[in-house]
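Morning!

This is the sequence you dropped in the shared folder:
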Amino acid sequence: MALHASVTHFSRLTGRIIGSLSVKCTRNTTLPATMRYISRSTGNSIQFRLDERTAHSSLDLFKKDTGVIYRMLGLDPSNVQDNPERFRDWAVVFGSEKITGGRHYWEVTVKKSQEFRLGVAEAKMAREDCVGTNAASWVFGYAQRKWSAMTSNKMVPLQLVGKPERVGVLLDYEAGLLALVDTERHKIIHSIRGRFRGPLCPAFGLWDGELLTHSGLEEPESLV
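The structure's back. Tokens below.
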């Protein structure tokens, strides 16, 4: 059965997003949460900062580029360095490291935001797109007090997640899985299956408040 769709509502002022983002999907989709696909592949614990070169002009980085805060008015786009890696239309920023294999885990403090997305995207993803709206990104989103899993502009609502202060993200590149993790119970809440091709970057969208990333972490043993 098709889900009711919503159209993204936002306004722009000199290239800056000044409204809230609310994306609805036009149809239901299957994003399996099955754990049998997760492999035993391992990789170094990824450690990254947020990459200022990719950050939209409404986003400010802080705490040695591990945190990001949303400014509704932000900077005039003409006052930030022009480069092809920067997001110009959407309040998105990428992590500084590229992932080409292995299994990686990081956490994000989300308690000071009411509208965000977090996950991974292809390093070469089109900068005119928003994470979750194309086949090159896989994210978990929170908006209007509800969680969802998103890719290719399709959304699956997540149940019984609530609003934790901090969540984990587990990426298994070879198995093609991205998982949202309960950091208190060390359990997977939901996972998305995808076909990962080429380097991936941690990816974040933010339209309210702030996020703080925590990388270089060991994966909780219960998730293995």
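Headline: The two ends are 34 Å apart (CA to CA).

More detail when I'm at my desk.
O.
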